[in-house]
Amino acid sequence: MLPTLEQIKQAQTTIAGAAIRTPLVRLNVADAPDEIYLKLENLQPIGSFKIRGAANAMAHIPPAELQKGVLTASAGNMAQGVAWQARALGIPCTVISPDTAPATKIDAIKRLGGRPIQVPFEIWWQTFQDRAYPGVEATFVHAFDDVNVMAGNGTIGLEILEDLPDVDAILVPWGGGGLSCGIAAAVKALKPSCRVYAAEVTTGAPLSAALAAGSPQVVNYQPSFVDGIASKTVFPQMFERAKKLLDGAFVAELDDVAAALRLMAERNRIIAEGAGACPVACALEGKAGGGKIVCIVSGGNIDLSKLCDILMDKRANIS
User: Fold this and answer.
1) Closest C-alpha to 294, from 162, 202, 108, 177
2) Which helix (H) or strand (E) holds 115?
3) Is the CATH number of domain 51-140 3.40.250.10?
4) How many CA atoms lie within 13 A of 76 on its CB side?
5) Which of the four pLDDT bands, split at 50, 70 and 90, describes residue 318?
6) Domain boundaries of the chain, sorted by first residue
């Protein structure tokens, strides 16, 4: 099931009090292979696009259920979106996070009133499938496999087409697929000629492997500073959605993502996390073809010590 254009347009109204309309700016690189634009979701109140899907999904949960509290599984950004909304509603929020999640994201969850529980990667991933965690009685808010979450994310597509009607392609970080599929659902309904691609990193690129094989595959996932995306496999239902909506997937090298992050900081004074720099790395390689290319800078919640290492190009400390 995919969000309809009507659901995405309705989400625009629903999330107006939580998410902001983010700017679309030109990347200040004159010799880039394409005309590259940046959709700055790092400027959202929680520093990530996730507030869009979280706000829309929680708005569709009956009040009686909400009072029991909410539960989500997240490496950090969806957790902050759910915690932000939970704080506004005065309800408890529990977050299951991988033990590899950066401290800056765990601290942010606590700051927003959420209760993080860090577990091994396999248990965290299982929580996405179970949509529950032992001992926690709360309504589960899925980070990506939810029509209302995808509809909230799809509002980004509406904004892009309003601000840049002649866009040729959009590059979107692929984590679980909720952002890519939400944006593509909106864009393909309004401008089918616009190409929408997923962007992955070599430390975990399961969508590219799945598209090549024709079915979900298990890849050799390695934790890195690109913590907002990269995983070991693709949910079957998200793979089916991606096949219908996306024009393909690109994979960026870890060093190229770091270089893109530095470039955005130097030329546009933008702080992005690894996931947000991944589409830019792909665009700078010319992988999306010619024309006007929009890169979704999905978030800016990067650990400051890691950011300093990347900006100073201290390769020994970048992983």
Assistant:
1) 162
2) strand 115-119
3) no
4) 27
5) low
6) 5-48+146-317, 51-140
Instruction: Show the tokens assigned to 242.
Output: 């991606």
For 260, other C-beta atoms within 10 Å of its C-beta total 26
Phi, psi (deg, nearest 5) at residue 102: -65, 145
Q: What span, in angstroms and rounded, lies between the C-alpha atoms of 157 and 190?
A: 9
Same fold, 5-48+146-317 and 51-140: yes
pTM score > 0.70 for this model?
A: yes
Q: Which amino acid is at 5?
A: L
- 């983010």: which residue's tokens? 22
Beta bridge partners of 98: 119
Torsion of CA 163, 169, 173, 178, to 10 degrees: 80
User: How is residue 19 written in tokens?
Assistant: 């998410």
Q: Are 164 and 158 in contact (CB under 8 A)?
A: no
| Closest residue by Cα to residue 178 from 131, 120, 245 | 245
Structure tokens at 269: 């004074």
Q: What is the C-alpha separation between 4 and 147, in angstroms, rounded?
A: 9
Q: 285 by DSSP, 3-state: which?
A: coil
What architecture does CATH give domain 5-48+146-317?
A: 3-Layer(aba) Sandwich (3.40)
How far is CA 95 from each of CA 50, 81, 287, rounded to the nearest angstrom?
14, 11, 36
Query: What are the tokens at 254?
Result: 């870890």
Condensed to tens digits (0 to 9), the pLDDT of residues 4-45 reads 999 999 999 999 999 999 999 999 999 888 899 999 999 999
Q: How confident is the model at residue 319 (pLDDT cuts 50, 70, 90)?
A: low
- Token pair, residue 190, equals 């309004």
Q: Which residues of 180-201 are buried (b: 16+ CB within 10 A; e: fewer)?
A: bbbbbbbbbbebeebbbbbbbb
The predicted pLDDT at position 197 comes to: 98
Contact 18, 30 (CB under 8 A): no
